[in-house]
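Something for you to look into today, if you have time. I want to see for myself how the chain folds. Leave the record below and I will have a look.
***
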Amino acid sequence: MLAEQSIDFVANVSAETIDRSTRTVSLSNGTKLRFSKLLLATGASPRRLDNVEGKDGIVLYLRTFFDALTLRERLQPATDIVIVGGGFIGLEIAASAVARGCRVTLLEAASRLLMRGVPEVIANRIAAKQREAGVKILISVEIESILGCGSRYALKLKDGKVFACDLVVAGIGAIPKTRLAATSALSIDNGFRVDDRLQSEDSDIFAAGDCCSFPHPLYAGRRIRLYRVRRRAVVLVGSIRRDPAGGRSLRSNVQHRGAPAQRH
């Protein structure tokens, strides 16, 4: 199917550097790819709990398919779960956990849920629904430590409260993967900085997904990272096809870790 779309799939390699002067991308296997147009879709990594004693090896994060499988296996009935983060990820995990019969406590450092996601009136309605379902919600709290206690954990807040639990899950945001900016001198502003057509300051380099930020008219031009992914894809294709050299179809190179290589 990829070959039919003129896409070469290159597995088990990563992009190491971008040379804008020669229009090449150097790969971890030593080869170089030339480009006329380049799309960066490097994604993001889960933001980790910092300055929390004992967190290493205990806290689960939800980012990949395998993370989801691990979490699903741990969401057993009568399990005590503490979720750190009252954003979309934390609330979705909380809803799934209580539906599976878990006892759930959700901790949020801000003064309300979904502080950056939705207006307060909507956040309050969502909070009410979560509480009605059985989720215990604490806001304006900070974690001091997470310590092992036999087969369970003890999560201590800075106000002295302690929660015994079987599982701690953190959903506190994501950090864009922008390592390639160091070699390409592309601007960074909460991710690769692109315009409303997902184009960087280099007219031939684009970025999409949660590795980039773009200005949004509904927020007076304030930059955001994610908004209607499907629509962003349509915008991206339209931007790339505006090729002053003639608008010809573009041949793509895709790198993906962990899958068998395919040669065409």
